[in-house]
Amino acid sequence: MKATFAQLEEIYHRPFFDLIQEARRVHQKHWPGREVQLCTLLSIKTGACSEDCGYCSQSAHHNTDLKPQPLMTTEEILPHAHAARANGSTRFCMGAAWKGVREGDRRFESVLETIREVSKLGMEVCVTLGQLNDAEARKLKEAGVTAYNHNIDTSPEYYPEIVSTHTFEDRLNTIGAVQRAGMSVCCGGILGMGETVNDRLRMLEVLANFDPPPESVPINCLVAVEGTPLENAEPVKIFELVRMIATARIVLPHSKIRLSAGRTSLTREGQALCLFAGANSIFYGDKLLTTPNPEANEDLDLLSTLGLQPLEPHSPASVPVA
Ligand code: SAM
Ligand code: DTB
Ligand code: SF4
Fold it and tell me: Residues near 109 by Cβ (< 8 Å), separated by ≥ 6?
């Protein structure tokens, strides 16, 4: 729904139980089942990125321990996609650490070939490949991409404090190209980069006013990586994370809210609160792109303890009730 900053403030600062009760009500109305979508990530091109995003292990501007790896071939990627499907993921998301690659570049062509193959497996295919123009977005859509992940990460005002090599507007331009090409937009952000609560609400304001709203909204907690400018950032407080998820659920009732990076620092009880407040998707498997994620069996155990279940492929519960 369209939401103003004042509305977001009013929602976010309600007494905690009033907030999560309302979020739960909205959640049950639009997502009446007990399903949680499991998505598997794969970094298909790792590190040595030209961009200077302050949170990122993969930026060539920072001094992290990460070993760069060139673009994986289709043959190297396919076994990972098969394994993800066999483990119960319904979405496979491939990420590349670069500013963007132009149409005609052999790496772009190679990614198109990979997408054509992965899309035969029956999972949703998501990619996150940096900046795109309209022609590139159309090619990705034609190859079989379901969703394109491109986060705004924080408020427009705070963005320049975190990244200097591209602008917030560049991010919005890519998202526009993705929408025009008919791919779903996966767009969210990161908490814990030194931003204020108002920055977080401004980020939600931008997301809630997308037309159409993003199909999925990843809420990441910063994984503070040694060697990045944010290595000493304070961890996100659990009640702030739950408030953010609940507020997102209320203003983005039809979006999948994805409880994303940083789950290894959350307790099971903390994650349960996030799922109660409206999160209905997680990244699944013991690695995100370059940092750890809970073990798959721990996540399945948590879901079963809560009486929740992994979303099945092509389930009617994949889409919200209007
Ligand atoms: N290079 C592409 C881009 O920037 O859009 C795609 C990959 S990038 C790693 C995808 C997203 O991962 C970022 O926008 C950010 O939200 C998230 N991310 C990256 N590093 C993170 C970290 N250390 N902690 C939490 N989230 C992170
Ligand atoms: C998103 O918002 N989170 C995922 C996915 N989109 C691509 C990536 C999280 C990355 C966390 C840091 C890492 O593993 O490098
Ligand atoms: Fe590069 Fe993406 Fe990391 Fe920024 S977030 S440094 S663009 S891989």
Answer: none
Beta carbon of 290 within 6 Å of any ligand 2 atom: yes
d(CA 4, CA 198): 12
Listed by start position, the domains of the chain span: 5-307
Q: CA 237, CA 219: separation in Å to the nearest integer?
A: 14
CATH architecture of 5-307: Alpha-Beta Barrel (3.20)
Amino acid found at 13: H
Q: In this predicted model, what pLDDT tens digit does every residue of 293-305 receive, in sequence order?
A: 999 899 999 999 9
Q: Would the pTM of this model clear 0.70, i.e. be above it? A: yes
Residue numbers in the chain where pLDDT is lower than 50: none
- The pick from 46, 49, 50, 291 for probing ligand 3's pocket by mutation, whose C-beta has the most ligand atoms within 8 angstroms, reads 49
Pocket of ligand 2 contains residue 281 by CB under 6 Å: no
Query: Considering only CA atoms, which of 243, 201, 277, 245 is closest in space to residue 15?
Result: 243
β-pair type (281-283, 256-259):
parallel
In this structure, how many other beta carbons lie within 10 angstroms of the beta carbon of residue 50? Answer: 14
| CA-closest candidate to residue 108, choices 149, 76, 140, 150 | 140
Q: From its phi and psi, is residue 137 left (phi > 0), alpha (psi between -120 and 50) or beta?
A: alpha
| Per-residue pLDDT, 87 | 84
For the segment 194-250, what is each residue's pLDDT rounded down to a tens digit?
Answer: 999 999 999 999 999 999 999 999 999 999 999 999 999 999 999 999 999 999 999
Other beta carbons within 10 Å of 234: 9
Provide the 8-state DSSP code for 311.
P
| Residue 126: strand pairing partners | 93, 147
Task: Judge if the beta carbon of residue 149 lies within 6 A of ligand 2.
Answer: yes
For residue 100, the model assigns a pLDDT of 85
